[in-house]
Amino acid sequence: MKLTEENIIELLKKELTGHVDFKTFKNDIPMTDQGVDSLDKLTLFLGIEEHYGIKIEEEDIDRINTVNEILAFVNK
Amino acid sequence: MLGIQNIGTYLPIDTVSNYDLKEKFEMDDFFIQNKIGVESVTRKSDDEDSSDLGVKAYRNLQEKAGFASEELECLVVVTQNPDHNIPHTSAMIHGKLDLPESCASFDVSLGCSGFVYGLSVITAFMTQNGMKKGVLITADPYSKVLDTEDKNTSLLFGDGATATLISDTPIFTSERFTFGTSGKGYEGLICRNGQLFMSGHAIFNFAAKIVPKDVKKLLEQCNHSTDSVDRFVFHQGSKYIVDTLRKRLRIAEEKVPFKINAYGNTVSSSIPFILADMLEDTSINTCLISGFGVGLSWSSALLKRL
């Protein structure tokens, strides 16, 4: 299954409440610069694994910082 | 029937404020208060060791429960930071407290699941041997192995100890336990060459995936639901992990205490610290406790007020 930008944003909205402004959220800017901290990233990646069966390994976490990078990684 | 009669606690006076480390670790007040949930961590003094922390928790228990040490038949100590590799810390505590020679003493080597495991071990051991009074001590000061440059661990872990009186006049008895181990993940939280290392990713994924399943299994076995249990006391790893478990299990916020902001994650002591405050609250009749971490290991139990 190919993940879309909407899938990721939907997961972000579901898992993270309150601190991210999705009206101005940009897919090519690091999520950590837009209110998603390192712990939220773990929740997001766990959500991707549980919802879509795609596991992001620990060594890849630090280099995946934008929604576009997530899409490139999981859809490769 | 044996169970928890009282709980003594000890926290060192010295603390390190995480607000003083904001610049060093590039974090803000929101992260400290709402994500790790630890504003300061307790630190034992240089002349205190694990056994001393245990002795002080025991003294506090004696003040609360008013029993004589001569009555004690069993002492179990949960620690992975013993004073020495040999002998066992329970023997040292036994000596410092001048306990009777007839008192059985042994250690249990477990981390964050240790209190729940230890509760099962000491209750079963005492029941098997017809004992009526025993003490379960948790004392695992991680400051002995912390790297103060490591954001993952130095902001989280605090020193502390607890002593739980197990007797035949209990307030809480344990109805049922669950246990589990995922040994392939042992490197997720490990002490190498005297220094602690924690993979936040591995521990988070482990806890978020395993603990809710384990809690649901226990509730089912006991014919309970998240609605019918009064409190859920999770190991106080961080606010983020406790919040994650609460959300995943869809439990009301007021049923899930998180109280470590002033002292930090005290490993196997984190659950009894919370329970100590609940013993007198007679509105709490059922309480599910769940410890998880080092190993990777987990254990949950349902406690009932008698």
Written description of the protein model:
The complex is a heterodimer of chains A (76) and B (306). Chain A has one domain (5-74): ACP-like (Non-ribosomal Peptide Synthetase Peptidyl Carrier Protein, Chain A, Orthogonal Bundle), CATH 1.10.1200.10. Chain A is 50% helix and 0% strand. Chain A has helices spanning 5-15, 38-52, 58-61, 67-74. Chain A starts with a helix and ends with a helix. Chain B has 306 residues and is of the alpha/beta class. Helix content of chain B is 30%, strand content 25%. The mean pLDDT of chain B is 96. In chain B, α6 packs parallel to α7. Chain B is globular. In chain B, α3 (89-96) links the parallel β4 and β5 (104-108). In chain B, the strands form 4 sheets. A 5-stranded mixed beta sheet of chain B has the order 1-7-6-4-5, sandwiched between helices. Chain B is built from 8 helices and 13 strands.
Summed up:
With 76 residues, chain A is mostly helical. In chain A, 50% of the residues lie in helices and 0% in strands.
Which terms would index this structure?
heterodimer; A: 76 residues; mainly alpha; B: 306 residues; alpha/beta; Peroxisomal Thiolase, Chain A, domain 1; 2 domains; 5-stranded mixed β-sheet; 8 helices
**Biggest sheet layout of chain A:** none
Rg of chain A is 11 Å
Number of strands of chain A: 0
CATH class of the largest domain in chain B: Alpha Beta
What is the averaged pLDDT score of chain A?
Answer: 84
CATH topology of chain A: Non-ribosomal Peptide Synthetase Peptidyl Carrier Protein, Chain A
List how many beta strands of chain B DSSP finds: 13
Write the topology of this structure:
The complex is a heterodimer of chains A (76) and B (306).
Chain A: H1 5-15, H2 38-52, H3 58-61, H4 67-74
Helix pairs in contact in A: 1-2
Chain B: E1 3-10, E2 15-17, H1 29-36, E3 40-42, H2 50-65, E4 74-78, H3 89-96, E5 104-108, H4 114-128, E6 133-139, H5 151-154, E7 161-167, E8 172-181, E9 189-192, E10 195-198, H6 200-221, E11 231-234, H7 239-249, H8 270-278, E12 286-293, E13 297-305
Parallel strand pairs in B: 4-5, 4-6, 11-12
Antiparallel strand pairs in B: 1-7, 2-3, 6-7, 8-13, 9-10, 12-13
